Amino acid sequence: MNSNKYWPTYHLLKEFQSMYSNHKFIFTLGTDLIDGISTWNNSAQLIKEFEFIICKRVNYNPSPENYPENYRILEGYI
Question: What is the C-alpha to C-alpha distance for residues 33 and 44, in angstroms, rounded to an integer?
């Protein structure tokens, strides 16, 4: 996508869904970002509507209640 616009994660994923409706989009993030995801724009919708792959990061152990509803953990550390 060629754009100078700021795209919050939720809106970007929704845009991709509309552009590529025959694809499934899964958001990947590290455990270092989980505790702060609730502060993101449209975080409740992001957490509810999308699947996540979570990459373990060394020395980051987020609170279990901050994990998204639908996630898989990538084994090993990055």
Answer: 15
